[in-house]
Amino acid sequence: MRAFIPISKPNITEKEISYVNAAVTSTWVSSLGEYIIKFEKDFASFCGVDYAVSVFNGTVAIHLALEALGIGEGDEVIMPNLSFIATANAVLHARAVPVFADIEPDTLCIDANDIERKITGKTKAIMPVHLYGHPANMNSILKIASEHDLLVIEDAAEAHGAKAFGKTVGSFGKCATFSFYGNKIITTGEGGMITTNDQVLDKRLRHLRDHAMLKEKRYWHDTLGFNYRMTNLQAALGCAQLERVGFLLSRRNEILRTYEKHLAGVKRLSLNKHADWAEPSCWLVCMEIQGASEKERDEFMIHLNQAGIDSRPYFFPMSFMPYINMPVDTPVTFEKYKIGLNLPTYIDLSEEEIEYVCSVIKKYL
Ligand SMILES: Cc1ncc(COP(=O)(O)O)c(C=O)c1O
């Protein structure tokens, strides 16, 4: 009997084990230690920015960025309607208002034309999401932001190492946020990072991350802060993963190429598309069944599951969530979420397993 093929699985080698071991053995198990310093430095250089501030996960990375930038009560933040809910939740936790724009059909990222339509006197920031590893069109977004004097915060949780117009994501906006959850391109178990070129913002993020305690006066807190610190254990795992990121990225792209090879010519089916200015990082293989209803897509996923293959549906439009429940005009999002799903995408997935997944898909469709 074939083993169940999961949707994702972290790739942990002797390097990760030895770094985490070293961190534990050093007794620096909380949020001070040499791995924290190294992980932040190496991640900043990986993204081509001056500063990187590690935090506990990708959701608090967004929240901390918003707080540090002074975005709060009543401020509007424009984001794509198709994303993981953390993007909107972090804005709600900051007491600001998520405003949902539509996506582009090919990149699945925010549509710059719709951003322009959604700008009001209350708009403070644009938060593009580099969805499933494809970068948003940062040239168009930065142009709109500069014309309207808006901040840009990239949600790069799913796109470590992806490039737009030859530049790495995480280096475009005022700042960018990343996630290192177990299914991400590199993982620290739970974990997150904020990248920026702004020295003042870097200082403010570090201050707020650590209970807003004054460096020069211990246990004096000049504002309401947070404990959002990453541990040295998480950073040890992150350092080892980051040393291997070239391999991790190329392997994911190779997996997509293998799916493409085995699914070429299948009617109604399309896989990840990409813009000619983009070098995506294939976080997850995306498959769409043209013309499918949500029910048909869900039945197909049940079929995959019965054949021992895990998959996951595209995110629901965030505007649908009962506590958000906003009427919005995002027709492409409403069409795409129903027809899309993600297929198993992880480093140890063999060509034989991909062939099996593709044979099940072909037979069904
Ligand atoms: C687009 C996006 N934003 C934010 C997050 C939040 O990251 P985390 O799960 O580390 O809190 C995720 C993660 O899953 C994500 O996919």
Notable features of this structure?
365 residues; alpha/beta; Aspartate Aminotransferase, domain 1; 2 domains; 7-stranded mixed beta sheet; transferase; GDP-4-dehydro-6-deoxy-D-mannose-4-aminotransferase activity; pyridoxal phosphate binding; pyridoxal phosphate
Provide the helix percentage.
25-40%
Which H/E pattern describes the elements?
A: HHEHEHEHEHEEEEEHEEHHEEEHEHEH
N-end to C-end Cα span? 24 Å
- The tally of strands reads 16
Q: Might you state the CATH topology name of the largest domain? A: Aspartate Aminotransferase, domain 2
Whole-angstrom Rg: 21 Å
- Number of H/I helices: 12
- Strand content is 15-25%
Oligomer: single chain
Largest sheet: 7 strands, mixed
* Class by alpha and beta content: alpha/beta
Modified residues (N6-(pyridoxal phosphate)lysine): 184
Pathway: Bacterial outer membrane biogenesis; LPS O-antigen biosynthesis
Catalytic activity: GDP-alpha-D-perosamine + 2-oxoglutarate = GDP-4-dehydro-alpha-D-rhamnose + L-glutamate
Enzyme class: transferase
